[in-house]
Amino acid sequence: MSAVTEGRREGSLEAPTRHPIDWNNPEFYNEESLNEELERVFDICHGCRRCVSLCHAFPTLFDLVDESDTMEVDGVDKKDYIKVVDHCYLCDLCFLVKCPYVPPHEWNVDFPHLMLRAKAVKFRKGETKARDRLLTNTDMVGKLAGIPVIVDVVNAVNSAGVTRKLLDSTLGIHPDAILPKYHSNTLRKRMLRRPQLNAEVIPTTTTKGKVALFTTCYGNYNEPQVGEDLVAVLEHNGIPVTIADKERCCGMPKLEVGDLEAVKEAKEANIPQLVKLVDAGWDIIGPVPSCVLMFKQELPLMFPDDEDVKKVQQAIFDPFEYLMLRHKAGKLSTDFKKPLGKVSWHVPCHQRVQRIGQKTREVLELIPETTVVPIERCSGHDGTYAVKSEYHEISMKIVRPVANLVKKDEYDHYGSDCPMAGHQIENGIGRTKAPEHPLSLLRMAYGI
User: Fold this and answer.
1) d(Cα 129, Cα 119) in Å, to the nearest integer?
2) Cβ distance 93 to 378 under 8 Å?
3) What DSSP character marks residue 19?
4) E strands in 210-335
């Protein structure tokens, strides 16, 4: 009998809480106890099945159960558990919006962090593919691909049909996936050449009024224009902007393959740099939701006793979260020059789980003659999941409802705060129109 039917209460009405990730405990990597916990949680999921529409991890689990001899979790071969794990890309939505058994419920279900534990065990056993280790080494790939001359070759290879088939056969990168372009003129280079705004710093009760930009790997190497748009918007509002002296990947890509030691190395490189800025009175903003979430949630849970991690956690903001805080304090300019019309806006999973509400929509709807239609469904991209040959078709199935809504909206503009999700939707609508980042739309509305 399923654990759900044996429990004393069906669900919890209390706010979900998160336990620290005990990743330094040797028991964390004990495969026998991991399988026991996987079986316990999978049994609860089997008896509930509310998350079946979120990603492919749950359909995979339920198919394994339904095709087993017992039609219960005890009939599933434990060797097949990894099939479920490999389809989880830690979007966190099952924990936040679907599961009724998350802490403080007595069943204590944290599906994403259980999947993280399984990924960490897989990584430690040396079973993670070389391709996955390469794709998540964003600093190295970005630096190499961004070298002048080489960058043109890389971009040509990433867009040519013949070479894409070669990437499929050698690395397992699907030929139909949209791959990001690389830039030798990175965002950090552009920021270092940019004269800093000389303006009076106006703090509010919730913001310091000057911003240090965590450019992120993707924002630095792949779409520096988004970061430039953010800086232009901030400076238009009288907010000086700087960057840290040094910056590493936030660690989210390595987290998603279970390489927790690499996450620690990134943390030890980034946190001291960011703490110096926080101590000097700077707020921190990152243009990519996953990177902000890393500092807001995952690093504090991995390093719960690190006071510097907590300090950065309290000082980092999503761009539109920050702009709305400034607006509420009467410090956001509303001198918009151009209406946007109808905007189809995909809400990224890693922005939703920050629990900040729809701040992008709130800011954009300050613009006259502008309506924002939110889409709260996963795009299925996850940074790397959608480009892998074995998962691409599944990712396109996940994005299909989002793409259908974008097409149905008869939009003037569409996009996502996550640039990668925006391109996944672009692929889903047949590449008929490119996405526009909400920060780019805001800059356009300001006429700057």
Assistant:
1) 12
2) yes
3) -
4) 211-213, 241-243, 283-285, 316-317
Domain encompassing residue 118? 3-124
Q: Return all residues near 239 (Cβ < 8 A) that are at least 6 apart.
A: 197, 199, 209, 210, 211, 326
Which pTM was predicted?
Answer: 0.93
DSSP string, 222-256: I-HHHHHHHHHHHHHTT--EEE-S-----SHHHHH
The amino acid present at 132, given as its one-letter code, is D
Q: Nearest to residue 418, comparing CAs of 288, 313, 293?
A: 288
91-146 tens-digit pLDDT: 999 998 889 999 999 999 999 999 999 999 999 999 999 999 999 999 998 888 88
Q: Is there a domain that residue 371 lies in?
A: yes
Query: What distance in Å separates the CA atoms of residue 392 and residue 379, rounded to the nearest whole number?
Result: 12
Q: What is the pLDDT of residue 198?
A: 87
**3-state class (DSSP) for residue 316:** strand
| Number of structural domains the chain divides into | 4
Residues 307-355 pLDDT 10s? 999 999 999 999 999 999 999 999 999 999 999 999 999 999 999 999 9
242 and 262 co-located in one domain: yes
Q: Are residues 81 and 33 in the same domain?
A: yes
